[in-house]
Amino acid sequence: MLTISTRPGRTFMGRLAKGDDLLQALEKLCQEQKITLGEVRALGAVTGAQVGFYNQAERKYYFLEFDQPLEILALVGNISLKDGKPMVHAHVTLADAAGRAFGGHLAAGTPVFACEFAIFEYLADQVLARQNDPETGLMLWPPATTK
Ligand code: ZN
Fold this sequence. Notes:
Helix content is 7%, strand content 56%. It has 147 residues and is mainly beta. It has a single domain (9-126), classed as CATH 3.30.1330.80. Strands 1-8-2-5-6-7-3-4 form an eight-stranded antiparallel beta sheet, covered by helices on one side. Strands 9-10 form a two-stranded antiparallel sheet. Zinc ion (ZN) binds next to β6.
């Protein structure tokens, strides 16, 4: 198990612009503000969506594409480093006009209609950086706390 101790840093609240790419806009803000560790939450609506499902047996992402207006019921994500740069890892639950929910691993290709977000920066004595995890085939945080 990996555990690192964090303390609160800056917090940001805001709205994305209509037409922004949901994931890329959040990631750009984190990179501009040099947020290397933190959490992100958001809600609002998108005009379409691209979300991934990781097939564990095949070790491969399959992407679902939605070309319709959807509500963002919840976006939860974290911020850490990948290849030395802030990366947002986010999952979304989206709903259609009938209230049916869909979701998955948020990918680029999800255009914002309206989106309100909050970002919570954390400070830590250690860096949290993604690395290839041979057991899952994913880019994950290290498997254990190093002393
Ligand atoms: Zn994911």
